[in-house]
Amino acid sequence: MNPTGTRVWIAGVGMTPFGVHRDTSVYDLVRWAVTDALRDADASQDVLDVVFYGAATQGLLQGQHMIAGEIAMRQLGIQAIPVFNVENACATGSSAFTLAVAHVRAQAADVALAVGAEKMHIGDAERSMALFDTGYDVRDRAALTKTLYDLGGDVDEPDLGTRSIFMDIYAAMARSHMRQYATTREQIAAVAAKNHAHAVDNHRAHYRKAMSVDDVLVARRLSFPLTVPMCAPLTDGAAAVIVCNDSGLQKIGGRSGVQVLAAVMGTGSDRDISTFDDHLSARVAARAYESAGISPGEVDLAEVHDATAFGEILQTEMLGLVPAGDGGPAAERGDTSLGGRLPVNPSGGLESKGHPIGATGLGQLFELTQQLRGRAGTRQVEGARIALAENGGGFHRGEEAVASVVLLGKA
């Protein structure tokens, strides 16, 4: 809620291309995104009062724990201000943003920077894939196995090759949804095909190749019902968002055009996982809508956490954007495509734009800010005034461990 009435604005956004940056360090990616965000805000780094730095893999992959944010900012010449390091699974970037918004809304700062970055291509694929085995309760792998069985039943499959444990997690949730709502593989593939088509004209996307539903279905299988094009790749990249209150906007001397209507986070709860009722994302979304004073029907476009194509189906339902069980049919009908009733993931989503974990949530906000400004080119959603970003991470007792919902409005 916003009892103080303090308005919060997005003053500037920056984002590197997402993809493989073999010869670029994580700190170079940070510099790129932050420099672009400052340029976008027409501001100098001297206006920044506080920084929230998001990175989920830097400790494991680069060996830099504890002070990665301070090092990254000092290399940019940003010093003598508070820097907070943020780690919260795939919701790391959104967590950094939510903390920046809360800081500004509480008037503890006038201008705050949220930045997230990952370099996941380090020349050691096994090490990069192993990091996903830290995103659940590692004390009891047997409990995870039982939860996946309870969700998706017993699937007897041959060795399908290297994949993240989270593909098995999403596959189990997808099978649960298929059992409850008769969702089909073709509908999941329709989501993937849509998002690959959306990314073709996004020059910041990891993959920019259109794929048909049939292309998606015949691709290499992962865990049933998923195939490779339905799933997000390992990705390098960085994104940054500058937020401010009215005083900060005056200091910058700019006009934002994009207001933060709500930024809400929550964690999972012990619930009946045989149903999607009372799902974490639904509860967080309800709080976000209440905080913003709007209904799901007023949302014009959304970026949601499609680490797999099934994730988009689930989240559009949990967010109230489509009725329960209609996420797959809506994609098949074209409702969630550009030009449809409610475009979802016009950037291409995580499946095509890519998923550099700490930067992902901020990359969603980059896309939505450009959309609300009318600067998305051929991907522009005409007349967009209210945009939603949903970002989740980790897995605990049958659902995501953490979820974020952000609502933005065109001023």
Structure notes:
The chain is α/β, with parallel strands linked by helices and 411 residues long. It has 15 helices and nine strands. It has helices at residues 26-41, 58-62, 68-75, 92-105, 125-130, 141-152, 165-181, 185-199, 213-218, 246-252, 280-292, 309-318, 327-333, 349-353, 357-373, and strands at 9-15, 50-54, 83-86, 111-118, 237-244, 258-267, 301-303, 386-393, 402-410. A five-stranded mixed β-sheet has the order 1-5-4-2-3, sandwiched between helices. A four-stranded mixed β-sheet has the order 6-9-8-7, sandwiched between helices. Strand 8 (386-393) and strand 9 form a beta hairpin. Helix 8 (185-199) crosses helix 12. The protein is globular, with a radius of gyration of 20 Å. It starts with 8 loop residues before the first strand and ends with a strand. The model has no long low-confidence stretch (mean pLDDT 96).
Offer a concise description of the structure.
The chain is α/β, with parallel strands linked by helices and 411 residues long. The chain contains 15 helices and 9 strands.
Largest sheet: 5 strands, mixed
Main sheet: strand order: 1-5-4-2-3
Rg computed from alpha carbons, rounded to a whole number of angstroms: 20 Å
Q: Extract low-pLDDT stretches.
A: none
Series of secondary-structure elements, N-terminal to C-terminal = EHEHHEHEHHHHHEHEHEHHHHEE
The pLDDT mean sits at 96
Question: Overall 3D geometry?
Answer: globular
Number of DSSP strand runs: 9
